[in-house]
């Protein structure tokens, strides 16, 4: 929780995400960001976040702003090994989810739309080609649990980020708030 004049790193990131149109994360304060940090710093700072909900927003950033993928190499250079692993895993999840939800994402992303390059799937043992997306997500989830040493429903976690992002955009359009 932020005190007068002091905003937590988490709250600052969530406020910046709002400026990027990623508004599904709850806020603890009324702090408003004036601008968004450069893409490489944003991705690196998200990967460093102790709060899982904020780390997972890497997926949302890449789905909403696929051009940010160009900054992944620079972001990786800013991170230690565990944080870089987090970024590579969530980047790969975004690649797969973009394919899964392309019909719903494309109109929301608009002129910024472009396919994310698959940079890391081979590293995580995900086959190229005609393997069903759901199977690829399951393989990524298994690799995530093994590499990060954290047992969780990773496939469900990845999918939940995409669904919350898209659902929020759809609700904002209904409310007349989507730009």
List the keywords.
single chain, about 180 residues, mainly alpha
Summarize the helices and strands and which ones pair or pack:
Blueprint: H1 9-19, H2 39-48, H3 52-55, H4 57-64, H5 72-77, H6 81-100, H7 102-109, H8 133-148, H9 154-175
Helix pairs in contact: 2-6, 4-6, 4-9, 6-8, 6-9
How does this structure look, described?
- The protein is mainly α.
- The chain has one domain.
- It is 59% helix and 0% strand.
- It contains nine helices and no strands.
- It has helices at 9-19, 39-48, 52-55, 57-64, 72-77, 81-100, 102-109, 133-148, 154-175.
- The mean pLDDT is 93.
Short recap of the structure:
By secondary structure, the chain is an all-alpha fold. 59% of the residues lie in helices and 0% in strands.
Shape: globular
Number of folding domains?
1
Total beta strands: 0
User: Roughly what fraction of the amino acids lie in strands?
Assistant: under 5%
Overall pLDDT metric = 93
Rg, Å, rounded: 16 Å
Low confidence ranges: none
**Which percent range fits the helix content?**
55-70%
Main sheet specs: none
- What is the N-to-C order of secondary-structure elements (H for helix, E for strand)? HHHHHHHHH
Q: What distance separates the N and C termini?
A: 30 Å
Alpha plus pi helix count: 9
Structural class: mainly alpha
